[in-house]
């Protein structure tokens, strides 16, 4: 991963290789939820190059840290999604099981 | 806590589908978008609080569930990962010993590659170009089909692909004749142990998911003899590694009757809809139309076609409610696929964090 | 009739070829049956009969049957021996002896595929498959030296027919191109300044027609007038000509002949024995309207013919509507393979038959001096990109004019082409409208026996010409009967005569393609049985009723009155519509493309200018793949000293082994091997000494040098050897043919097209996860830009888009027609929309699609539903061109010898021109030094003499430049000039222009 300007730590462009909309757009989502972020966006400079540039501007905090926090938040969200999903699947399967038990009775 | 005025709230949370085009399709991500109105647009806390999953249907190959309270970006990320980044095993190399059928070698190899295999890819590791094929990264299938002189033309089906847990049976051209006497003859793979000794595979042999996929047609006297090596890969590389037939979502439809629609008009409306969204309710004032099944709306927009009908009916989509469908090709069950996809997104974040620190 | 039941799509080709082989060739041989020795006229060779045997070849003395696929693979000509039954005289010891011999092979005749003499004739599907033939292949072409060659249908103005036209000067002209038994001539009678003249290229200039008439024995002016007709208007028009003739003092036949004698062109090489006297008479006998036969020394038939020509011309003078239209299809004849072959055969019968036929077919040069035919490009290689294309080739008609002419008349669509020629299928560009195609149902006739028809006419009451006086010729109520351009005589009840003939035709007593046409204006009955007329099947309206002038449509189409000249007559045969449809259904069997799910929307911006965006996953799954086959052949040359090239087993180790991977142990590449550019196909070596006798019996290995046959000229790295064929060529050298196969998947730059001619290149290939998808999870295979529609106005495609979508959702074929059709079989747009709605789609076919990625950062918008257009299934056929075949670049490479400029074209590894605009780019970019360097500094040094300004040369002995004009080396400067510039100077010098260079310092 490359990193944009070092002069102003509150505004940076991160160039992430081997990634695309999948990660960048999710990051943009979580970073935009962060009140410290004043701007966040991304671009894919060329379609035949596996690279995405993520621009983060903050209200003062170092952009790298904010991005790291964003990643962590995203992980937390994913974990929550997974847990909720697994619960829902279990619930569905249980209800199915009881349904079929009811049916068999 | 202050709330947005209705018309803005509508724009924020709904896509309105007009006859010609949908409106308000963008999602407003920025947390401070409505700061001037003292409204907090989005926050992490609300996600943790409101996110819900409701499963509608699970079969062997398919799952449909509702994800409520999640942004499109994330739902889309899961979808994209499902299609292109969850690994599976697929045939990558085909060693053709004999092919006298009319199907060309490369066409046959291509067809073999697309055959879905029923095997858990998590048991295997990726094989790089330099790696020697071994029991950890390669699955070998053999195929030997023959049509005898007097037999009629027949199809070669995928069930004829037989798993060779001990690895390749084809001998590598012997480079060193002296060593061949002492050690086992060299083949195209280098398996240290048989794959069927693995507890996961011993009573669950690897085979193509469907037994009846036609691979080729062979006529009298024609013969196909080959060995197919399957390796682990992702859908980005080639669609054959995609674990899903497809994975997609749609936003929850919302059909709103803006005015009371009564009598003939109501019947007309019920008639118009091919998806059977509307019903008629008997009220003291007469027959009145209702929309009890918005989910089945296919957005054909018949109900708002024609002069003035868009004043009666509004078709909307809820922006944070997704009806998600995953169709597995058989390597893993669809619910496992989804959790795998979420994990992959976590891994991506992990990577950024390590690279940043 | 049986043949017409099974009418194939190229029946006309097969018929004409069959006719040639079964009848034509025998006739030709009968005419040219004798070859006499120039030394002893008693010694001769005579052909008694001739027939065509089975397709076969004699190899090393072994007789072997051949089939077309075998010929294609082994670069042979699919031909059969011509077996003649001959009679000849031998002389042994002064004793002449008459001998007879049967089945003498005099040459080999190329066989048309699927003709009666082809091994494929009458074979069923499995038998064809065994012979390696496609059952759907129409045949109608030849296999010459392994290539499939089609003889194009040649369009010509019809022979032996009078055509009245207006020439460039505005004069009325009646012309006839006569095709006699032995020669071709053109007779022109023209009216200039109210006088009538004859133009014949044997006369130095025009000659008065009255003199000609007198020379032919009609000395009385009155008789001429009678022959033309006694209408006073005609006589009045003739008067100036008669007066002119009188003013020359020509009154008798003798005087006329003397007068003409002076006008006859002197032969270029005056031979001693040419009789001085009778030249004019000879010309009139042989050249003047050559197709009208002489009866002994009587010119009567020719006189009457000339009179009829004049009459027609005068008629046209009085009534402008009587002028003929050259572009009228009835005045055209189409020469098919059979006719073309027969003229060629006749020409070369006393020459090398096999070689002549083979060369003409493979080069397409038809050069027959006797008939002054010199045509190029008569044959073409059958293009096989799609089935329809191959069929189209067989119906293509080559024009008589050269393409460059800027004329509009012949290019325009003629009303008479209705039903005969396809109104839409013609190429764009220079040959637009000139190259035509036969319509589906059209048939082109072949020659029919004339004798029986002529005698039949006399039986039906035609009065013989010989018995008529000039006066009777044009008597009212009697019609002239003209048979294939010959005047037979006259008939007093033309309609009765015509209907009698027609009845005979319909009952099958005379040929089904004989046409009978009563021209009331010209008072003529035209009967035609000659070959090359186009005709089409029509339905009889009222059987036998000859009053078919007015009334309903079918009668109208029956043809007589609507087109005011003679048209191929009404009903020819019943052709069941269903039968014809059977032929059409086959199009479905051999589709030329694939169905694709198409979204019509703009996406990524890589779709401007008709480019299309493709889905990578679709391509992964096999969408749009194609297999390309190329043939490579190697010959094991045998040299005059009997040394021949040999094949060595490959080396398996070391540096060379890598290039020999594909080789089998026999040194020839094996089928199924993957092969790359420059890999060896044959590990061949050539003897160093190829001349003179070999000293020792065996050539040692050291006397061979390796000359491997490598794979070249095939881009891409996934070539596979499909088949290998070993055979002997006609010099008994061993040949090895490799068929190399490539399976190609679409890539950026490949060109695709749907039907409707909506073509476009692939602009980008996008991952499936980035592609749009619909509410139902459907992801398109390709995206097409909607801007392709408004300017092209391809409404048909829009209907296909809708119909395709409806088709997949209801599982039924949809029939594409905009008009619903009275039968109700076609699907109107309304019906299609209804089907769509029934299956939950929008009536307009538009779907909402979800964007799979997001764009726009500025406004921070969405990832989300994008406006969408149609998501539909459309037949997206035909890959047209592929970049892999087009891609070309070179650093250095071959140059042309003459100019030392890089060669042209990809096939010759040519250079790419830096033209004016490229030069502009370089200058604009500021790289003008590059141009200077390329054009000047990198050029060749030349010695320029400062005193005379001419180019000198560099003398290596003296190590100095020398001027060859001044004979010294005093004022020599070295200058860099492009070689082509030097060449220009030399060429100018050769034309007596002296270019002098004046040098000065910059």
From TrEMBL, chain A:
<dbReference type="GO" id="GO:0003899">
    <property type="term" value="F:DNA-directed RNA polymerase activity"/>
</dbReference>
<keyword id="KW-0804">Transcription</keyword>
<dbReference type="GO" id="GO:0003677">
    <property type="term" value="F:DNA binding"/>
</dbReference>
<keyword id="KW-0539">Nucleus</keyword>
<dbReference type="InterPro" id="IPR008193">
    <property type="entry name" value="RNA_pol_Rpb11_13-16kDa_CS"/>
</dbReference>
<feature type="domain" description="DNA-directed RNA polymerase RBP11-like dimerisation">
    <location>
        <begin position="12"/>
        <end position="83"/>
    </location>
</feature>
<protein>
    <recommendedName>
        <fullName>DNA-directed RNA polymerases I and III subunit RPAC2</fullName>
    </recommendedName>
</protein>
<dbReference type="GO" id="GO:0005736">
    <property type="term" value="C:RNA polymerase I complex"/>
</dbReference>
<dbReference type="GO" id="GO:0006383">
    <property type="term" value="P:transcription by RNA polymerase III"/>
</dbReference>
<dbReference type="InterPro" id="IPR033898">
    <property type="entry name" value="RNAP_AC19"/>
</dbReference>
<dbReference type="InterPro" id="IPR022905">
    <property type="entry name" value="Rpo11-like"/>
</dbReference>
<keyword id="KW-0240">DNA-directed RNA polymerase</keyword>
<dbReference type="GO" id="GO:0046983">
    <property type="term" value="F:protein dimerization activity"/>
</dbReference>
<dbReference type="GO" id="GO:0005666">
    <property type="term" value="C:RNA polymerase III complex"/>
</dbReference>
<dbReference type="Pfam" id="PF13656">
    <property type="entry name" value="RNA_pol_L_2"/>
</dbReference>
UniProtKB/TrEMBL annotation, chain B:
<dbReference type="GO" id="GO:0003899">
    <property type="term" value="F:DNA-directed RNA polymerase activity"/>
</dbReference>
<feature type="region of interest" description="Disordered">
    <location>
        <begin position="185"/>
        <end position="206"/>
    </location>
</feature>
<dbReference type="InterPro" id="IPR036603">
    <property type="entry name" value="RBP11-like"/>
</dbReference>
<dbReference type="Pfam" id="PF01000">
    <property type="entry name" value="RNA_pol_A_bac"/>
</dbReference>
<protein>
    <recommendedName>
        <fullName>DNA-directed RNA polymerases I and III subunit RPAC1</fullName>
    </recommendedName>
</protein>
<dbReference type="InterPro" id="IPR050518">
    <property type="entry name" value="Rpo3/RPB3_RNA_Pol_subunit"/>
</dbReference>
<comment type="similarity">
    <text>Belongs to the archaeal Rpo3/eukaryotic RPB3 RNA polymerase subunit family.</text>
</comment>
<dbReference type="GO" id="GO:0046983">
    <property type="term" value="F:protein dimerization activity"/>
</dbReference>
<keyword id="KW-0240">DNA-directed RNA polymerase</keyword>
<keyword id="KW-0804">Transcription</keyword>
<keyword id="KW-0539">Nucleus</keyword>
<dbReference type="GO" id="GO:0005736">
    <property type="term" value="C:RNA polymerase I complex"/>
</dbReference>
<dbReference type="Pfam" id="PF01193">
    <property type="entry name" value="RNA_pol_L"/>
</dbReference>
<dbReference type="InterPro" id="IPR001514">
    <property type="entry name" value="DNA-dir_RNA_pol_30-40kDasu_CS"/>
</dbReference>
<dbReference type="GO" id="GO:0005666">
    <property type="term" value="C:RNA polymerase III complex"/>
</dbReference>
Automatic annotation (TrEMBL), chain C:
<dbReference type="InterPro" id="IPR007644">
    <property type="entry name" value="RNA_pol_bsu_protrusion"/>
</dbReference>
<feature type="domain" description="RNA polymerase Rpb2">
    <location>
        <begin position="159"/>
        <end position="333"/>
    </location>
</feature>
<dbReference type="InterPro" id="IPR007642">
    <property type="entry name" value="RNA_pol_Rpb2_2"/>
</dbReference>
<dbReference type="InterPro" id="IPR007120">
    <property type="entry name" value="DNA-dir_RNAP_su2_dom"/>
</dbReference>
<dbReference type="Pfam" id="PF04560">
    <property type="entry name" value="RNA_pol_Rpb2_7"/>
</dbReference>
<dbReference type="InterPro" id="IPR007646">
    <property type="entry name" value="RNA_pol_Rpb2_4"/>
</dbReference>
<dbReference type="InterPro" id="IPR037033">
    <property type="entry name" value="DNA-dir_RNAP_su2_hyb_sf"/>
</dbReference>
<keyword id="KW-0548">Nucleotidyltransferase</keyword>
<feature type="domain" description="RNA polymerase Rpb2">
    <location>
        <begin position="910"/>
        <end position="998"/>
    </location>
</feature>
<dbReference type="InterPro" id="IPR007645">
    <property type="entry name" value="RNA_pol_Rpb2_3"/>
</dbReference>
<keyword id="KW-0240">DNA-directed RNA polymerase</keyword>
<keyword id="KW-0479">Metal-binding</keyword>
<dbReference type="InterPro" id="IPR007121">
    <property type="entry name" value="RNA_pol_bsu_CS"/>
</dbReference>
<feature type="domain" description="RNA polymerase Rpb2">
    <location>
        <begin position="380"/>
        <end position="444"/>
    </location>
</feature>
<keyword id="KW-0808">Transferase</keyword>
């Amino acid at each position: 991963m490359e990193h944009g300007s070092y002069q102003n730590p509150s505004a940076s462009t991160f160039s992430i290789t081997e990634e695309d909309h999948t990660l960048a757009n999710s990051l943009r989502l979580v970073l935009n939820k962060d009140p410290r972020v004043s701007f966040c966006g991304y671009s894919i400079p060329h379609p035949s190059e596996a690279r995405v540039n993520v621009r983060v501007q903050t209200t003062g905090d170092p952009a790298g840290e904010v991005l790291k926090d964003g990643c962590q938040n995203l992980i937390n969200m994913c974990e929550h999604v997974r847990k909720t999903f697994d619960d829902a699947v279990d619930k569905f399967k249980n209800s199915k099981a009881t349904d079929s038990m009811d049916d068999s009775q | 806590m202050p709330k947005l005025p209705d018309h803005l709230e509508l724009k924020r949370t709904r896509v309105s589908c007009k006859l010609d085009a949908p409106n308000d399709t963008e999602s407003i991500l920025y947390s401070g978008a409505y700061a001037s109105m003292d409204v907090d647009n989005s926050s992490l806390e609300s996600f943790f609080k409101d996110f819900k999953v409701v499963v509608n249907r699970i079969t062997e190959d398919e799952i449909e569930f509702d994800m409520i309270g999640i942004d499109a970006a994330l739902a889309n990320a899961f979808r994209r990962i499902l299609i292109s980044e969850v690994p599976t095993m697929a045939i990558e190399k085909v060693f053709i010993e004999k092919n006298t059928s009319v199907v060309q070698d490369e066409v046959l190899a291509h067809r073999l590659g697309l055959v879905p295999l029923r095997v858990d890819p998590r048991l295997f590791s990726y094989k790089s170009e330099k790696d020697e094929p071994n029991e950890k990264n390669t699955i070998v299938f053999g195929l030997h089909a023959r049509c005898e002189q007097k037999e009629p033309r027949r199809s070669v089906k995928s069930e004829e692909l037989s798993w060779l847990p001990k690895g390749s049976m084809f001998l590598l051209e012997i480079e060193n004749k002296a060593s061949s006497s002492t050690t086992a003859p060299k083949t195209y793979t280098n398996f240290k142990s048989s794959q069927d000794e693995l507890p996961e595979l011993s009573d669950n042999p690897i085979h193509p998911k469907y037994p009846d996929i036609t691979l080729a047609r062979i006529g009298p006297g024609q013969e196909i003899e080959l060995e197919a090596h399957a390796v682990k890969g992702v859908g980005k590389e080639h669609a054959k590694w995609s674990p899903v037939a497809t994975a997609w979502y749609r936003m929850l439809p919302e059909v709103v009757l803006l005015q009371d629609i009564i009598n003939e008009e109501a019947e007309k409306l019920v008639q118009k809809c091919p998806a059977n969204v509307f019903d008629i309710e008997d009220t003291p004032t007469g027959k009145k139309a209702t929309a009890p099944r918005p989910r089945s709306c296919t957005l054909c927009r018949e109900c708002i076609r024609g002069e003035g009908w868009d004043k009666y009916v509004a078709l909307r989509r809820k922006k944070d409610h997704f009806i998600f469908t995953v169709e597995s090709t058989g390597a893993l069950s669809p619910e496992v696929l989804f959790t795998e996809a979420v994990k992959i997104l976590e891994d991506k974040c992990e990577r950024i964090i390590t690279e940043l620190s | 009739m049986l043949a017409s039941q099974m009418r194939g799509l190229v029946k006309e080709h097969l018929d004409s070829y069959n006719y040639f082989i079964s009848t034509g060739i025998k006739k030709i041989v009968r005419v040219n049956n004798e070859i006499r020795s120039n030394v002893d006229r008693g010694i001769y060779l005579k052909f008694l009969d001739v027939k065509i045997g089975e397709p076969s070849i004699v190899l090393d003395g072994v007789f072997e049957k051949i089939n077309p696929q075998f010929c294609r693979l082994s670069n042979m000509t699919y031909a059969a021996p011509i077996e003649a039954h001959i009679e000849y005289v031998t002389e042994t010891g002064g004793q002449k002896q008459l001998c007879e011999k049967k089945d003498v092979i005099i040459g080999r005749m190329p066989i048309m595929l699927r003709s009666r003499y082809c091994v494929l004739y009458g074979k069923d599907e499995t038998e064809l498959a065994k012979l390696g033939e496609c059952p759907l292949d129409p045949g109608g072409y030849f296999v010459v030296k392994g290539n499939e060659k089609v003889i194009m249908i040649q369009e010509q103005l019809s022979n032996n027919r009078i055509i009245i036209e207006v020439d460039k000067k505005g004069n009325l002209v009646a012309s006839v191109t006569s095709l006699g038994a032995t020669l071709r001539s053109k007779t022109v009678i023209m009216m200039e300044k109210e006088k009538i003249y004859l133009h014949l290229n044997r006369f130095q200039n025009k000659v008065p027609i009255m003199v000609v008439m007198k020379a032919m024995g009609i000395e009385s002016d009155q008789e001429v007038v009678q022959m033309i007709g006694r209408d006073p208007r005609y006589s009045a028009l003739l008067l100036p000509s008669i007066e002119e003739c009188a003013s020359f003092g020509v009154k008798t036949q003798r005087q006329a002949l003397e007068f003409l004698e002076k006008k006859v062109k002197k032969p270029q090489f005056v031979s001693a024995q040419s009789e001085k006297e009778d030249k004019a008479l000879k010309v009139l006998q042989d050249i003047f309207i050559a197709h009208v036969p002489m009866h002994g020394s009587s010119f009567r038939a020719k006189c009457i013919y000339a009179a009829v020509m004049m009459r027609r011309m005068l008629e046209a003078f009085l009534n402008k509507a009587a002028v003929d239209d050259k572009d009228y299809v009835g005045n055209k004849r189409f020469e098919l393979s059979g006719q073309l072959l027969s003229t060629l055969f006749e020409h070369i019968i006393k020459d090398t038959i096999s070689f002549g036929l083979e060369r003409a077919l493979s080069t397409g040069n038809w050069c027959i001096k006797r008939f002054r035919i010199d045509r190029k490009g008569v044959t073409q290689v059958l293009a096989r990109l799609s089935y329809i294309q191959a069929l189209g080739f067989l119906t293509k008609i080559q024009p008589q004019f050269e393409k460059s002419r800027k004329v509009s008349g012949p290019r325009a669509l003629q009303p008479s082409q209705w039903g005969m020629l396809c109104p839409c299928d013609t190429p764009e560009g220079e040959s637009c409208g000139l190259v035509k195609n036969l319509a589906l149902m059209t048939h082109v006739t072949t020659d029919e026996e004339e004798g029986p028809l002529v005698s039949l006419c006399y039986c039906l009451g035609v009065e013989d010409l010989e018995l008529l006086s000039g006066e009777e010729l044009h008597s009212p109520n009697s019609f002239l009967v003209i048979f294939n351009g010959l005047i037979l005589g006259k008939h007093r009840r033309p309609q009765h005569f015509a209907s009698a003939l027609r009845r005979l035709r319909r009952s099958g007593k005379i040929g089904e393609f004989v046409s009978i046409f009563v021209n009331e204006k010209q008072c003529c009955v035209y009967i035609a049985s000659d070959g090359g007329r186009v005709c089409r099947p029509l339905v009889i309206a009222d059987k036998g009723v000859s009053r078919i002038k007015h009334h309903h449509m079918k009668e109208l189409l029956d043809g007589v009155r609507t087109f005011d000249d003679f048209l191929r007559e009404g009903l020819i045969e019943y052709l069941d519509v269903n039968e014809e449809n059977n032929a059409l259904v086959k199009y479905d069997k051999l589709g030329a493309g694939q169905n694709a799910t198409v979204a019509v929307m703009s996406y990524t911006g890589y779709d401007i200018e008709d480019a299309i965006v493709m889905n990578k996953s679709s391509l992964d799954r096999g969408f749009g793949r194609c297999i390309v086959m190329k043939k490579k052949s190697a010959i094991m040359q045998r040299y005059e000293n009997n040394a021949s090239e040999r094949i060595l087993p490959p080396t398996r180790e070391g540096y060379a082994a890598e290039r020999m991977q594909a080789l089998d142990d026999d040194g020839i590449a094996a089928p199924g091997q993957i092969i790359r550019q420059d890999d060896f196909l044959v590990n061949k070596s050539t003897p160093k000494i190829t001349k003179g006798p070999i000293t020792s019996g065996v050539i040692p290995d050291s006397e061979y040098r390796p000359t491997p046959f490598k794979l070249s000229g095939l881009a891409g790295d996934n070539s596979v050897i499909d088949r290998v064929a070993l055979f002997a060529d006609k010099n008994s050298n061993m040949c090895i043919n490799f068929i190399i196969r490539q399976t190609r998947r679409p890539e950026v730059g490949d060109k695709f097209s749907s039907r409707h001619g909506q073509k476009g290149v692939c602009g980008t290939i996008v991952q499936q996860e980035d592609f749009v998808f619909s509410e139902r999870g459907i992801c398109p295979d390709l995206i097409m830009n909607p801007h392709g529609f408004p300017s092209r106005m391809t409404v048909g495609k829009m209907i296909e888009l809708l119909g395709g979508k409806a088709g997949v959702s209801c599982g039924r074929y949809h029939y594409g027609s905009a008009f619903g059709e009275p039968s109700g079989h076609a699907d109107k747009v309304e019906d299609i929309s209804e089907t769509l709605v029934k299956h939950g789609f929008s009536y307009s076919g538009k779907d909402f699609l979800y964007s799979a990625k997001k764009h726009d950062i500025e406004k921070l918008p969405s990832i989300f539903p994008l406006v969408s257009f149609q998501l539909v299934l459309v037949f997206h056929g035909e890959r047209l061109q592929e970049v892999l075949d087009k891609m070309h670049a070179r650093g250095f490479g071959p140059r042309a010898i003459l100019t030392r400029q890089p060669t042209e074209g990809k096939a010759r590894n040519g250079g790419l021109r830096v033209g004016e605009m490229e030069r502009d780019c370089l200058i604009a970019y500021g790289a003008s030094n590059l141009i200077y360097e390329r054009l000047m500094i990198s050029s060749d040094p030349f010695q320029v003499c400062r005193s005379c300004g001419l180019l000198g040369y560099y003398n290596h002995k003296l190590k100095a430049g020398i001027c060859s004009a001044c004979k010294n080396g005093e004022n020599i400067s070295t200058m860099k000039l492009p070689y082509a510039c030097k060449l220009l100077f030399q060429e100018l010098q050769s034309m007596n222009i002296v270019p002098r260079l004046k040098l000065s310092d910059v």
